[in-house]
Amino acid sequence: MKQGLDCFGKQYEFIYKNDTHAEGSVDRVLFEQMIRLDAQSVDWLYGEYTDLTARYVPGSRPALEKIVRRLQRKSRAKTAANIVRYCRKKVLEPCDTGTADLLFGGTEEDIIARTTYWCTDLARVGCVLFQIAGLPARILVTANTSFAYCGHQVAEVYFDKAWHVADLNEGLLYPHCAWEIHNNPGLIDGELEGYLFFAPGEQYQSVGVVNYYVDEAANYSYETSRLNEYCRAILAHSAKKWEGGIRWIHGEDGSDLDL
């Protein structure tokens, strides 16, 4: 079983080590704890790994609880769908997308207040809102390691006796778990259009699973940070739609990486 920053290989280990979130912050720790979803780990990850009991302590996160009360319905599926739509709205709401002032990390309350399009932050928000609503949830780190910098972060939420992938950025709640998509990428390829290099399902070529429980917030640091130079350069190339083809620009594919 592969766990930690290097579970997708050396290039992606370098990415996670240079993530723009503050060193030691919750998001860095979750990268370090993720377990690669594969034939060796699937039974455990879809078995006893994640606690399916309600862990939220009522009254402990009043601002988030107020949001969930507006979104909650008798149907657990409808509640999950409402939370996904709410998070998608946070992407579409006006927010400063200029890299100079962009903030990363912080508590889920902080992220909601400032709005964000950054998938790492939004996946964490969705995961906590699901749990406050009584829906077990966890975070998924996905990547297509055939390409440079092709990573994403989503949540996986449990209801109706099954896990469902929730892409909070795109506002999509799939009737499939990550393992199903990993093995059959075409299951979700009709959901999104306009992709540049690969179909949406191929993003699940590599999947890391990590638990993030709402009642364990005291165990983490919620320090915020600004965009670092490593990620700034990647975003600059991405803004140009990867002229000349998507490629490693920091030497991640070389043999002399300081890993």
Structure description:
Helix 5 packs antiparallel against helix 7 (119-132) and helix 6 (108-114) crosses helix 7 (119-132). The strands form two sheets. The chain has a six-stranded antiparallel β-sheet. The protein is α+β, with helices and mostly antiparallel strands. It is 33% helix and 14% strand. The chain has one domain: C8orf32 fold. Strand 4 (151-159) and strand 5 (162-167) form a beta hairpin.
Structural topology:
Elements lengths: L9 H8 L8 H8 L1 E2 L5 H4 L16 H10 L4 H17 L10 E3 L2 H7 L4 H14 L4 E7 L7 E9 L2 E6 L4 E2 L4 H6 L22 E5 L13 E3 L2 H11 L20
Write a brief caption for the model.
The chain is built from 9 helices and 8 strands. By secondary structure, it is α+β, with helices and mostly antiparallel strands.
Q: Which key features would you list for this structure?
A:
C8orf32 fold, 33% helix, alpha+beta, 8 strands, globular, 259 residues, six-stranded antiparallel beta sheet
